[in-house]
Specification:
8 helices
Amino acid sequence: MTVKIAPSILSADFARLGDEVAALDSAGADYIHVDVMDGHFVPNLTIGPAVVKALRPCTRKLLDVHLMIEPVDPYIPAFVEAGSDIVTLHAEATRHLDRSLQLVRSLGCRAGVSLNPATPESVLAYVLDKVDLILVMSVNPGFGGQSFIPACLDKIRRLRDMVAGRPIEIEVDGGVTAANAPAVIAAGADVLVAGSAVFCSADYAANIRALRGKL
Protein backbone atom coordinates (compact mmCIF):
# COMPACT_ATOMS: atom_id res chain seq x y z
CA MET A 1 0.00 0.00 0.00
CA THR A 2 1.29 3.46 -0.89
CA VAL A 3 2.43 5.47 2.11
CA LYS A 4 0.18 8.37 3.11
CA ILE A 5 1.54 11.91 3.29
CA ALA A 6 0.35 14.34 5.94
CA PRO A 7 1.84 17.80 5.32
CA SER A 8 2.26 19.78 8.52
CA ILE A 9 0.80 23.26 8.22
CA LEU A 10 3.28 24.42 10.84
CA SER A 11 5.53 25.21 7.86
CA ALA A 12 2.79 26.91 5.82
CA ASP A 13 2.27 30.62 5.24
CA PHE A 14 -0.05 31.51 8.13
CA ALA A 15 -1.10 34.73 6.40
CA ARG A 16 -2.89 32.61 3.77
CA LEU A 17 -3.52 29.39 5.67
CA GLY A 18 -6.83 28.52 4.04
CA ASP A 19 -5.32 28.80 0.57
CA GLU A 20 -2.33 26.73 1.67
CA VAL A 21 -4.55 23.92 2.94
CA ALA A 22 -6.61 23.95 -0.26
CA ALA A 23 -3.37 23.76 -2.27
CA LEU A 24 -2.22 20.74 -0.26
CA ASP A 25 -5.55 19.08 -0.96
CA SER A 26 -5.10 19.59 -4.70
CA ALA A 27 -1.43 18.54 -4.55
CA GLY A 28 -2.28 15.03 -3.38
CA ALA A 29 -1.94 15.16 0.39
CA ASP A 30 -3.75 12.36 2.20
CA TYR A 31 -4.12 14.07 5.57
CA ILE A 32 -3.68 17.68 6.68
CA HIS A 33 -1.56 17.62 9.83
CA VAL A 34 -2.37 20.36 12.32
CA ASP A 35 0.13 20.92 15.13
CA VAL A 36 -1.42 22.41 18.27
CA MET A 37 1.12 23.67 20.83
CA ASP A 38 0.46 25.33 24.16
CA GLY A 39 3.78 26.85 25.29
CA HIS A 40 3.62 24.55 28.33
CA PHE A 41 3.87 20.92 27.22
CA VAL A 42 6.12 22.10 24.38
CA PRO A 43 8.08 25.36 24.09
CA ASN A 44 5.99 26.96 21.36
CA LEU A 45 2.52 28.40 20.75
CA THR A 46 0.47 27.75 17.64
CA ILE A 47 -3.31 27.53 17.15
CA GLY A 48 -6.57 26.49 18.77
CA PRO A 49 -9.97 25.03 17.85
CA ALA A 50 -11.14 28.21 16.10
CA VAL A 51 -8.46 27.84 13.43
CA VAL A 52 -9.28 24.16 12.92
CA LYS A 53 -12.94 25.13 12.45
CA ALA A 54 -11.96 27.80 9.92
CA LEU A 55 -9.85 25.30 7.95
CA ARG A 56 -12.47 22.57 7.85
CA PRO A 57 -14.26 23.96 4.72
CA CYS A 58 -10.91 24.37 2.92
CA THR A 59 -10.20 20.67 2.42
CA ARG A 60 -11.89 17.35 1.77
CA LYS A 61 -8.96 15.50 3.33
CA LEU A 62 -8.79 14.23 6.89
CA LEU A 63 -7.77 16.81 9.46
CA ASP A 64 -5.08 15.08 11.50
CA VAL A 65 -4.90 17.17 14.67
CA HIS A 66 -1.88 16.64 16.92
CA LEU A 67 -2.45 18.03 20.42
CA MET A 68 0.82 18.93 22.12
CA ILE A 69 -0.98 20.36 25.12
CA GLU A 70 -1.26 19.62 28.83
CA PRO A 71 -3.80 19.11 30.30
CA VAL A 72 -5.37 17.65 27.18
CA ASP A 73 -8.75 16.15 28.16
CA PRO A 74 -10.58 19.47 28.73
CA TYR A 75 -9.83 20.56 25.14
CA ILE A 76 -10.60 17.35 23.25
CA PRO A 77 -14.34 18.07 22.77
CA ALA A 78 -13.65 21.51 21.28
CA PHE A 79 -11.21 20.12 18.71
CA VAL A 80 -13.61 17.34 17.74
CA GLU A 81 -16.47 19.81 17.39
CA ALA A 82 -14.23 22.04 15.24
CA GLY A 83 -14.00 19.30 12.62
CA SER A 84 -11.02 17.12 13.49
CA ASP A 85 -11.07 13.64 11.96
CA ILE A 86 -8.16 12.30 14.00
CA VAL A 87 -7.24 13.65 17.43
CA THR A 88 -3.80 12.59 18.63
CA LEU A 89 -2.73 13.25 22.20
CA HIS A 90 0.58 12.60 23.93
CA ALA A 91 0.99 9.69 26.31
CA GLU A 92 3.18 12.02 28.38
CA ALA A 93 0.44 14.65 28.68
CA THR A 94 -2.22 12.60 30.46
CA ARG A 95 -2.22 10.62 33.70
CA HIS A 96 -5.00 8.39 32.43
CA LEU A 97 -4.20 7.46 28.84
CA ASP A 98 -6.97 4.87 28.59
CA ARG A 99 -9.58 7.41 29.72
CA SER A 100 -8.31 10.09 27.32
CA LEU A 101 -8.46 7.73 24.34
CA GLN A 102 -11.94 6.59 25.33
CA LEU A 103 -13.03 10.24 25.37
CA VAL A 104 -11.80 10.86 21.83
CA ARG A 105 -13.59 7.78 20.50
CA SER A 106 -16.78 8.50 22.45
CA LEU A 107 -17.04 11.78 20.50
CA GLY A 108 -16.93 9.91 17.18
CA CYS A 109 -13.33 10.73 16.30
CA ARG A 110 -10.37 8.50 15.50
CA ALA A 111 -7.97 8.35 18.45
CA GLY A 112 -4.23 8.74 18.10
CA VAL A 113 -1.48 8.59 20.71
CA SER A 114 1.93 10.18 20.29
CA LEU A 115 5.25 9.17 21.84
CA ASN A 116 8.18 11.53 22.33
CA PRO A 117 11.62 10.20 21.30
CA ALA A 118 12.54 9.12 24.85
CA THR A 119 9.18 7.48 25.61
CA PRO A 120 9.17 3.68 25.21
CA GLU A 121 6.48 2.00 23.14
CA SER A 122 5.65 -0.22 26.13
CA VAL A 123 3.31 2.49 27.49
CA LEU A 124 0.85 1.43 24.77
CA ALA A 125 0.69 -2.25 25.66
CA TYR A 126 -2.65 -2.01 27.50
CA VAL A 127 -4.44 0.53 25.30
CA LEU A 128 -3.96 -0.87 21.80
CA ASP A 129 -7.65 -1.76 21.54
CA LYS A 130 -8.49 1.95 21.90
CA VAL A 131 -5.92 3.31 19.41
CA ASP A 132 -6.42 4.04 15.71
CA LEU A 133 -3.08 5.74 15.09
CA ILE A 134 0.33 5.82 16.78
CA LEU A 135 2.43 8.91 16.12
CA VAL A 136 6.16 8.40 16.58
CA MET A 137 7.92 11.69 17.22
CA SER A 138 11.29 11.50 15.48
CA VAL A 139 12.31 14.90 16.87
CA ASN A 140 11.63 16.48 20.22
CA PRO A 141 8.34 18.33 19.69
CA GLY A 142 7.99 22.09 19.68
CA PHE A 143 9.58 23.38 16.50
CA GLY A 144 9.73 22.51 12.81
CA GLY A 145 12.91 22.08 10.81
CA GLN A 146 14.71 19.71 13.19
CA SER A 147 16.80 16.72 12.10
CA PHE A 148 15.44 13.18 12.22
CA ILE A 149 16.61 11.10 15.22
CA PRO A 150 17.85 7.80 13.68
CA ALA A 151 17.18 5.74 16.83
CA CYS A 152 13.46 6.19 16.15
CA LEU A 153 13.70 3.71 13.28
CA ASP A 154 14.07 0.88 15.78
CA LYS A 155 11.04 2.15 17.70
CA ILE A 156 8.99 2.13 14.48
CA ARG A 157 10.03 -1.49 13.84
CA ARG A 158 9.08 -2.54 17.37
CA LEU A 159 5.72 -0.80 17.07
CA ARG A 160 5.05 -2.54 13.76
CA ASP A 161 5.57 -5.85 15.55
CA MET A 162 3.47 -4.71 18.52
CA VAL A 163 0.38 -3.78 16.49
CA ALA A 164 0.53 -7.23 14.87
CA GLY A 165 -2.13 -6.89 12.23
CA ARG A 166 -4.43 -4.55 14.15
CA PRO A 167 -5.98 -1.72 12.09
CA ILE A 168 -3.62 0.85 13.61
CA GLU A 169 -1.67 3.29 11.45
CA ILE A 170 1.90 4.17 12.38
CA GLU A 171 2.65 7.81 11.67
CA VAL A 172 6.09 9.41 11.88
CA ASP A 173 6.66 13.11 12.49
CA GLY A 174 9.91 15.05 12.61
CA GLY A 175 12.72 15.62 10.16
CA VAL A 176 11.16 13.43 7.47
CA THR A 177 12.61 14.16 4.02
CA ALA A 178 12.64 12.54 0.60
CA ALA A 179 16.14 11.26 1.47
CA ASN A 180 15.19 9.40 4.65
CA ALA A 181 11.58 8.54 3.78
CA PRO A 182 12.51 5.15 2.25
CA ALA A 183 14.13 4.03 5.52
CA VAL A 184 11.16 5.27 7.55
CA ILE A 185 8.72 3.44 5.27
CA ALA A 186 10.84 0.27 5.35
CA ALA A 187 10.79 0.38 9.16
CA GLY A 188 7.00 0.21 9.09
CA ALA A 189 5.53 3.71 8.75
CA ASP A 190 2.10 4.08 7.13
CA VAL A 191 1.88 7.88 7.30
CA LEU A 192 4.66 10.47 6.94
CA VAL A 193 4.24 13.91 8.44
CA ALA A 194 6.38 16.49 6.67
CA GLY A 195 6.54 20.25 6.97
CA SER A 196 9.76 21.64 5.55
CA ALA A 197 10.02 18.84 2.97
CA VAL A 198 6.62 19.78 1.50
CA PHE A 199 6.85 23.56 1.77
CA CYS A 200 10.49 23.82 0.64
CA SER A 201 9.32 24.88 -2.84
CA ALA A 202 6.12 26.06 -4.45
CA ASP A 203 5.55 22.72 -6.19
CA TYR A 204 3.80 20.92 -3.35
CA ALA A 205 2.67 18.08 -5.62
CA ALA A 206 6.25 17.29 -6.67
CA ASN A 207 7.44 17.43 -3.07
CA ILE A 208 4.68 15.03 -1.99
CA ARG A 209 5.56 12.66 -4.84
CA ALA A 210 9.21 12.76 -3.77
CA LEU A 211 8.25 11.69 -0.24
CA ARG A 212 6.36 8.76 -1.71
CA GLY A 213 9.46 7.85 -3.71
CA LYS A 214 7.81 8.76 -7.01
CA LEU A 215 10.01 11.42 -8.53
